[in-house]
Design brief:
- The protein has 288 residues and is α/β, with parallel strands linked by helices.
- It has 2 domains: 217 residues, P-loop containing nucleotide triphosphate hydrolases (Rossmann fold, 3-Layer(aba) Sandwich), CATH 3.40.50; 49 residues, no CATH class.
- 31% of the residues lie in helices and 30% in strands.
- Strands 6-7-8-3-9-10 form a 6-stranded mixed sheet, sandwiched between helices.
- Helix 4 packs across helix 5.
- The model has no long low-confidence stretch (mean pLDDT 93).
- The protein binds adenosine-5'-diphosphate and magnesium ion.
- The site of magnesium ion has 4 residues, from helix 1.
Length: 288
């Protein structure tokens, strides 16, 4: 069980996190929020790489403030920008992380390294230098190293960035499998990453946790607010409260999907919301 209690972080004058309270149990928890919301700050603190300005995080009752070394061994972390020495190979990187995580038995470490390289489909590249790798391949090494040492909590900061659709699917399947007996915290600004793999979701906006709910509850935020139809002339030019989700030109008319509290124009039909609609309704359309 992971407990985040009253966690705050201030960088000089800037409050990046304000009193975050959150509990994460087994499974995949999605942390969603626009760029600059504080996702990476929260994750760096949880990974014990940075001290909070206030509050605490407890991993199975151990505090990041009082037992950072012990906590570090219980956590696997993929930073948003995963940099490694270009001369190293995936085997060397994973082996090193295994040592840091306390896997002292060499044979056991070797088995874990080959297992996780297989899971991210890099077995055939295991002995090649990182400098020859594409961004997506480096990212996969980063995902594999986060799992070394069988951590209780896996923290993945925007793991899908740079992955192609096939790699995303592989990651989704890997997380679904691992989420059965581990806690996985995954951050993203891409709503579809959450939709396909998470059950619970937290939304950060400007350092505040504005939602802690299930994926379905987030979707329901836009219930009764998504409309579609052929737009009458003058509507697009005089938008006040409504948010245009997408437009499409059909012959000489414009067809639009709109987020609006009430029927936005004559002939508009109400639609079932997607998760992205729910997210935008929650943020008040401020990311558009
Ligand atoms: P996210 O990961 O959600 O994009 P970050 O945690 O990276 O958000 O950043 C949150 C806020 O804190 C942003 O406004 C960012 O500019 C600021 N910030 C992040 N790191 C630092 C730092 N080292 N020094 C000062 N401000 C920072
Ligand atoms: Mg970030």
């Amino acid at each position: 069980m992971i407990e985040i209690r009253n966690l705050s972080k201030t960088y000089k004058q800037h409050q990046a996190l304000s009193s975050i309270n959150l509990q994460i149990s087994t499974g995949i928890f999605g942390l969603l929020g626009p760029n600059g919301a504080g996702k990476s700050t929260l994750m760096r603190i949880m990974a014990t790489l940075m001290k909070p300005s206030g509050g605490d995080v407890l991993i199975d009752s151990l505090s990041i403030n009082t037992h950072p070394e012990k906590v570090r061994k219980m956590i696997g972390y993929l930073p948003q920008h995963f940099h490694v020495y270009p001369q190293l190979t995936p085997i060397e990187i994973l082996d090193y992380v295994g040592v840091m995580k306390g896997v002292t038995n060499k044979k056991e470490r070797r088995e874990q390294v080959s297992h996780w390289l297989h899971e991210v489909n890099l077995t055939s590249k295991a002995n090649e230098k990182m400098k020859t790798f594409s961004h997506g391949m480096k990212q996969r090494v980063g995902i594999a190293q986060a799992f070394m040492g069988d951590p209780k909590l896996i923290i993945l900061d925007e793991p899908t960035v740079g992955l192609d659709p096939e790699e995303r699917l592989r990651l989704r399947n890997l997380l679904s499998k691992e989420g059965l007996n581990k806690s996985i915290l995954l951050s993203t600004h891409v709503v579809t990453d959450i939709e396909s793999s998470c059950f619970e979701v937290g939304v950060l906006q400007k350092g505040t946790l504005i939602l802690d709910a299930t994926v379905d509850q987030l979707r329901e935020r836009a219930c009764g607010k998504v409309w579609e139809g052929t737009v009458p002339s003058g509507y697009l030019e005089n938008l006040a409260e409504d948010t245009i989700l997408c437009t499409e030109h059909r012959d000489k008319t414009i067809h639009a999907r709109v987020l609006a509290e009430e029927k936005p124009f004559h002939g508009a039909k109400m639609l079932e919301p997607t998760l992205e609609d729910g997210y935008l309704a929650l943020l008040g359309g401020s990311t558009l």
